[in-house]
């Protein structure tokens, strides 16, 4: 054998060692990055403080509110809120009983406290909801006020063991979606979303996108718009016209111990949008759409606003019926980063997916840094992780905005009935999905381990599917 031969062998061995070290380092870096990110998560959470209120109580019955669910108490609510605000803030108390009202507009430094066995019943008359600056499906609009609305407020909360009842059903609100399964009949009012989309794409100023009567865009239930230091705690929310909890362009939001039960169209449980530092913990979601759906604006309007949603923490929650347990998108044009989901239980024959990402080339946007750990999943219909970058609603959804999805980490996940796919992920050739890691994951009773297209660096570490240890696929 010649010296040249030995030289070639030596070079090949050195190259092989470098490649193997590089691959090992890559996996090691993923784990280290994940651990460090969880540490940073806790630091951020520690900096999010609950709002504090003066111990002054303003009982709505002292301002003319009458229980029974018949008399409209909108004026009484407004008087109590204004009195509280003018006296430096405090607690606006809703005592035991049923109180009918139209829109409630909160002020800074006010805690709307709903006692146990108290119920706020919201009017189904659209005229009881004045036109305000709000949003519909990720697009800003002048439309019916949310049922509870805070606009550019600081230090505001809704607490207590009582109930918020939106009275949404097939006779009220829901039929406007235009689906017969929700009570719509030919010739009945139907929402005009297309007109709003056209105005947004054309760059029409929000102040000129005036909707309301005749357009039939359903109002959000609870919306904090451009607010800081917000809290919802312990309340129960049922039967929403549209999205239930909507932090919009808000910072430092705590949603704690809230129970959501609402099975109407677009009845997402919680939709943080253009928001930062959002904690969702100890909550229960049983919904007609996504349990939690993290958003950042739709199409041209999302790119116009350009505020990334970041630092969303989901902890100790239960997800039952819904399209997804925790979803990101589809209104995602300004991007989402740093989402942490831990210690949750997801289980229902009517829960389609545990974790879901959805967008397309019209919406664009990005998702980076999604961390999921310590999750127990009883049953899902389609997939444990679903990533759809060809999400299609409202007709043609193709455009020139290629989405980017990368850095998704699953750890310590147990699934009893995984549905059709452990992972269903479809990326674009021009922009593949990058860096998905499953570590210490067990998925049983699933039809296919995974179905992937244009995915780079899918890694399985100590992961079993249907009892078999899964190897990482070659790129």
What would your notes on this structure say?
By secondary structure, the protein is an alpha/beta fold. 15% of the residues lie in helices and 41% in strands. The chain has helices at residues 3-46, 74-86, 193-201, 299-305, and strands at 57-59, 90-94, 97-101, 104-105, 110-114, 118-122, 131-136, 139-144, 148-151, 154-159, 163-165, 222-225, 228-233, 236-238, 245-248, 251-256, 259-262, 276-281, 284-287, 292-294, 309-315, 318-319, 322-329, 336-342, 345-346, 351-358, 366-379, 383-388, 404-417, 419-426, 433-443, 446-453, 455-461, 464-465, 468-469. The protein has a 23-stranded mixed sheet that branches. Strands 20-23-26-28-30-32 form a 6-stranded parallel sheet, with no helix packed on it. Strand 34 (464-465) and strand 35 (468-469) form a beta hairpin. The protein is globular. Residues 1-30 have low confidence and may be disordered.
Strand content: 35-45%
Overall 3D form = globular
What is the number of helical segments per DSSP (H or I, 4+ residues)?
A: 4
Q: Unreliable stretches, pLDDT < 50, 5 or more residues?
A: 1-30
Radius of gyration over C-alpha positions, nearest whole angstrom: 24 Å
Helix content: 10-25%
What structural class is derived from the secondary structure elements? Answer: alpha/beta
Structure in a nutshell:
Helices cover 15% and strands 41% of the residues. It has 475 residues and is an alpha/beta fold. The longest helix is centred in the N-terminal third of the chain and has 44 residues, at 3-46.
